[in-house]
Amino acid sequence: MDQFVIACIDSPESAAVVLPVARHFAERLNHKGLMALHVSQDTGHSAQEPDEWLKTLGVPYVSLKGDWHTAIEGLPTAFGGILAVAALNPSAPRSSITHPLTLLRQFRDCKIAYLVVSGQWTATTHFSSFNSALTLTHRREGKEKLVWASYLARFLGSGITIAAPHYSDSGLRQKLNNNLRFVEKIFKPLNINYRTVSLNTKHFSLNTDLVALRQLHPDLLIARTSDPRERDLIDLLFPKPEMQLLTHPSRTPILFLNPRDDLYILCD
What is the mean pLDDT of the chain? Predict the structure, then answer.
C-alpha cells in the first residue's frame, strides 16, 4: 500500500503553515506521498464548499464532512498515513483543530505520529541543520520515540540529543541504564550519532519533557502523550503534559506519539 504524509488543514492559513513541512518530510522520508486532509462539520444542509481553495494547493487532497476525530483514527488504514502534520494556533477559536485543546482531543486516538508546528516555524528556515531531542527515563516507553529519532537522523539529517534525569535511587538508575543500552542497540547498527545529557532533576517528576524543552531548547521534541489510564487525582490538578508542551512560549515543534498497542510506525 502507498504511504503518505498527511497535512491536516482547516483553512488556507493553516495550509500555509503545514504544507511546506509536510512536503519536506514526504520528500525526505524515502519519497513518501503527500496528501492534504480537510474535514468540515456535517451540518445536515448544504454548506460552503472548501474545494475552491483546496484546489489551489497543488497537492492531492481529501475533503470530508463529519468530524476530525473519526478521520484521524482512520489515517493509517483509510489513507495510508505514516505521519500527520497539523498547525498550532493558540489564538484560534475552539472550533478550529489548530486550537491546542481541540487538537489534542481530536488526535487522542491517532495511530500514527503527528507533528505539531506553529506559524513561526517553517521548513525553509529550520531544516538546513536542526537538532531533535527526546527524554528517556526508567519507564519502558521509549522504543517508538527512538525509532522516530532514527528516522529523523537517517532521512532528515537531524542531530539527536537524549535527555535523562539523574536518579539517586539505584533501582531507577539501573532501569535507566538498561534503556540507554537499548539506545545503543538500535542506533549503533545504523551508524547514528547522538549525545546524552543529564537533566536538572529538581522538578523533572512533574513533566520531564517540559524540563528538556526548557533546558535544551531543541528545534524539535519527540514526546509521548500521557496515558489517561495512568493519570491519578494529583495529575488532574495540573494541565496535561502535552498541553504544557504546546503552550510553551518557544512554540517548539512537537512530534507526538500516543501510548497505543496498535501504533503504526514507518519501517523503511
Answer: 87
Question: Is the pLDDT at 144 greater than 80, yes or no?
Answer: yes
DSSP state of 225: P
Asked whether residue 1 carries a pLDDT value surpassing 60, the answer given is no
CA 61 – CA 91 distance, rounded (Å): 26
Place of cell 527524554: 135
The sheet carrying 4-8 orders its strands as 61-66, 33-41, 4-8, 81-88, 113-118, 254-257, 220-224, 131-135, 159-165, 195-199
Please tell me the distance from the alpha carbon of residue 96 to that of residue 37, in angstroms, as a whole number.
14
pTM of the model: 0.91
| Surface-to-core class of residue 85, CB atoms within 10 Å of its CB (0-12 exposed, 13-18 middle, 19+ buried) | buried
Q: Which three cell numbers stand for residue 157?
A: 539529517
List of E strands, 42-172: 61-66, 81-88, 113-118, 131-135, 159-165
Phi, psi of 143, deg, nearest 5: -60, -50
